[in-house]
Amino acid sequence: MDLVRYEYQGEIRHGIREGDNVAEIDGDFFGDLQRTGAIAALSDVKLKSPTMPSKILNIAGNYYSHLGDSPPFTRPQPFLAPPSSVIDPGADIVIPAGSVNVDYEGEIAVIIGKRARKVSVDDAPSHILGICPANDVSERDWQNGDDKDVQWWRAKGGDTFSPFGPWITTGLNYRDIGLKTLVNGEVVQETNTKDDMVHDIDTTLSFISQHMTLEPGDVIFSGTPQTTVALKPGDVVEVHVDGCGVLSNPVAAEE
Ligand code: MG
What is the pTM of this model? Predict the structure, then answer.
């Protein structure tokens, strides 16, 4: 099932995708998904970010193919990005003035469906609503370069740096799923979680919840594989996760 948050006739609504249409539901995604009976064509609605999270937990160094020769971390390594870094599907990723090293990071976003506080690995799946593609946009000079900060607050938490969507897909086997990133139609990252992910999604959720309560709508960006390169204005980045909608965002320069 695909859960869509969208704007239609001036109001933000929640619904269930049915082919090229969306069937509106009462309330948000965290209730019983009762349909109102209203149907709209997807082409007539504006897609919004699937949730407005209270926080985003990004996971650093979580694919063997991204780590290269570096040893894997012995536990998940989350860091925070703020809600203000979220943009809607299709919205511009904006390269800050003066930045020349803003990279894509194609990732799988995990959407929390039920409050998670000190949950076990076995109980983690019952706290997950679904998944979608995400892009952990990263300013590498501020992250690792000569100009690096103590924390990655702007390197990864700056405005427009946390696109996810276009909608939440439920019921997928995220332990064995393909992830792919395209820039201007060319594949630049491609992997599968089964063989490449260091700390699986259930383990990561459980670990975070020992220290920080995850609320419905919060999001975990579960890490990026392989290598990344800098984006430039005019590029279009797509992130594909098997069974999900495609997340597509154009890249613009700050005006
Ligand atoms: Mg990342």
Answer: 0.97
* CA contacts within 13 A on the Cβ side of 191: 23
Measured in Å, residue 149 CA sits from the centre of ligand 1 at 17
Q: 255 pLDDT exceeds 90?
A: no
| Distance between Cα 31 and ligand 1 center (Å) | 30
Q: How far is the CA of 144 from the centre of ligand 1 (A)?
A: 13
E-strand stretches of 10-118: 11-18, 21-25, 35-41, 46-47, 56-59, 78-81, 93-95, 102-103, 106-112
Quickly count: other Cβ atoms within 10 Å of residue 196's Cβ. Answer: 16
Q: Ligand 1 centre from 39 Cα, in Å? A: 36
Compute the distance between CA of residue 247 and CA of residue 49 in angstroms, rounded to an integer. 10
